[in-house]
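Journal club side-thread
Mid-discussion, someone asked how the predicted structure for our own chain would compare to the paper's figures. Pasting it here so we can look after the session.
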Amino acid sequence: MANFKRLLLILTTALLGCSENDETEFFANIPEKERQQFAYQDIHQLSLTLSKLTKDIDETGFSPILKCAFHLEDNQHGPWPQAWVAFNISVLVSNVEITSIKRAGVLQGHSMDIQFQHELPKFGVKPESIKINIKPIAWMPSYPLIIINNETVAQ
């Protein structure tokens, strides 16, 4: 995986070096050097809405388990119907963080459903005392992939 990341970085750098500088490039403008920040164009922004959050607690086993599900959706239905999205899920019980889960998935048709489960520290925890925080990490567009089987084409 580390070699893949290095190769991806080298290829990306090479492709960016070959491109022409134009207003339609990835960065809309580059501010003064002392700020060291980049300004992105609107097309590079993605806003997802969290909905349908369910929290169920299963106390039938030796340890209570939180079963959680939620729905993320791009309500603006921007130019990216498919995107790879990475985010961090924090689970808090009585305002104390018990876990932080990194998740990534593919947004299909401007939406995605997420499910996860995690052991709780004790029995008797009520779903109302559990808070779920989702913080974005990154996203990138993904495009449809078509694979043609040569054996069926030859027939």
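Post-session note: The longest helix spans residues 2-18.
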